[in-house]
Amino acid sequence: MAGHKIYEMPFSSVYPHYINKAERKGRTKAEVDEIIRWLTGYTQGGLDRQLADKADFRTFFDEAPEMNPGRNLIKGVICGVRVEDIEEPLMQEIRYMDKLIDELAKGKKMENILRQA
After folding, report:
1. Hey, which residues does 82 pair with through a beta bridge?
2. Residue 26 has what DSSP assignment?
3. 42-71 exposure pattern, b = at least 16 Cβ within 10 A, e = fewer
4. pTM of this structure
5. HEC assignment per residue over 53-117
6. What's the angle, vertex CA 33, arms to CA 82 and CA 23, rounded to 5?
7. 22 near 32, Cβ under 8 Å?
8. Residue 59: which residues within 8 A CB-CB, separation 6 or more?
């Protein structure tokens, strides 16, 4: 798999940015965590452990209990690229999460963010 710098970056270094982005728009840390748990299958305890262990993005996604099958319903553009067209699996998972957090910050309802398969 090709190496991108983000793969080796600690997830815990980006997580506060997700929370700040959401909170600036009146959303909550709890909603950010709910999105991440929905996408990855982590429990809150599992998510907290990944953050405490400073797991990199590769490890964070490799150790995810169960990626949500509804994530293939996530469509749209993030960082100038359509998420559904990203061919590299790990990069696509990262961009799915970015897209969901972006939707939260834009005021989308949680039931719409958390797609149903």
Report:
1. 77
2. T
3. beeeebeebbeeebbbbbbbeebeeebeeb
4. 0.93
5. CCCEHHHHHHCCCCCCHHHHHCCCEECCEEHHHCCCHHHHHHHHHHHHHHHHHCCCCHHHHCCCC
6. 80
7. yes
8. 50
Q: Which two tokens stand for residue 54?
A: 């400073």
pLDDT of residue 117: 57
pLDDT at 51: 98
73: left (phi over 0), alpha (psi -120 to 50) or beta: alpha
Q: Residue 14: left (phi > 0), alpha (psi -120 to 50), or beta?
A: alpha
Provide the 10 A C-beta neighbour count for residue 117.
8
Classify residue 110 as left (phi > 0), alpha (psi -120 to 50) or beta: alpha
> 31-74: per-residue pLDDT in tens?
999 999 999 999 999 999 999 999 999 999 999 999 999 999 99
